[in-house]
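2024-03-11 09:14:02 INFO worker-7 job=invfold-0412 stage=load source=structure_tokens
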């Protein structure tokens, strides 16, 4: 790991540590620098603002599953549905860990809402083209019958992300399962697939 990478991660770690006990709006760039043990000028070398640090912190949480997803998109020897299942599982694991870290901290409701909004935006925008590419491959292979892969990818990601996060529309476990079951039924009919073929979305 290069010194630049170490310092970059140190800045992110410092903001994450501060968020455990303080509200985001009360944290200054100077305080992040002090926590990291570096000069304030060094912060601006890597990030133009505090918001940029927060964005990078969210992105880092999804670096591993996104790398996995991008790798899987090119592995056409693996069936499309299998690859999609693997991506959703990686995504779900990252979301679970992210939410657990938020529960352990003393972050207030406004900060949690902001962080959730940012992570959902990142999740959907980054995973959409990867998932759309796999859906397109399935369309070309005759395994999915739908002419708008990007639309389908976005619909699935939005529903699953909102339900996994469970803060925008707080729901019971039963309600979440019913919603995803409904999504699966619609997708199977809309893509001309047999019942049960998309049950991996429930995993």
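2024-03-11 09:14:09 INFO worker-7 stage=emit residues=203
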């Amino acid at each position: 790991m290069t010194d630049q990478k170490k310092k970059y991660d140190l800045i992110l770690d410092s903001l994450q540590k501060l968020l455990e006990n303080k509200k985001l709006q009360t944290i200054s760039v100077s305080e992040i620098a002090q926590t990291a043990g570096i000069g304030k000028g060094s912060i601006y070398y890597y990030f133009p603002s505090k918001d940029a640090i927060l964005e990078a912190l969210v992105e880092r949480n999804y670096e591993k599953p996104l790398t996995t997803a991008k790798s899987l998109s090119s592995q056409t020897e693996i069936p499309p549905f299998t690859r999609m299942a693997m991506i959703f599982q990686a995504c779900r694991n990252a979301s679970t860990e992210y939410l657990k870290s938020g529960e352990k901290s003393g972050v207030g409701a406004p900060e949690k809402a902001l962080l959730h909004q940012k992570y959902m935006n990142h999740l959907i925008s980054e995973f959409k083209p990867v998932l759309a590419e796999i859906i397109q491959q399935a369309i070309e292979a005759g395994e999915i019958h739908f002419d708008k892969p990007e639309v389908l990818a976005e619909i699935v990601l939005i529903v699953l992300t909102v339900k996994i996060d469970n803060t925008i529309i707080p729901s019971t476990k039963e309600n979440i399962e019913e919603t995803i079951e409904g999504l699966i039924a619609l997708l199977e009919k809309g893509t001309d697939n047999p019942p049960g073929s998309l049950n991996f979305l429930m995993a």
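2024-03-11 09:14:09 INFO worker-7 stage=report msg="The two ends are 35 Å apart (CA to CA)."
2024-03-11 09:14:10 INFO worker-7 job finished
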